[in-house]
Design a protein that fits this description.
single chain, 80 residues, 0% strand, mainly alpha, elongated
Length: 80
């Protein structure tokens, strides 16, 4: 199955656009592919930062955590 694509329109500094086009042309990389991968990588980095912050914030309460198995057992016993 072919991957669906969407268009995004945005404005960036002309010097940056020229650098990206030149980089892609010199290396034989398709412009759209390069931009798509750059956006994916940036999103992954931002999500990782959020995960690390969550870990830092939640680490102290880890001692109070129960296993999923125990939690589900307790929930099953609560049902009427």
């Amino acid at each position: 199955m072919k991957e669906q694509k969407a268009s995004l329109a945005f404005k960036i500094d002309v010097r940056l656009a020229d650098r990206v086009r030149s980089f892609c042309r010199e290396r034989g990389v398709k412009y759209g592919f390069f931009i798509e991968k750059a956006l994916e990588e940036r999103l992954q980095r931002e999500e990782l930062k959020e995960d690390l912050l969550d870990l830092k914030v939640l680490r102290p309460s880890e001692k109070e955590a129960v296993s999923l198995e125990d939690y589900l057992k307790d929930k099953a016993h609560e049902r009427p």
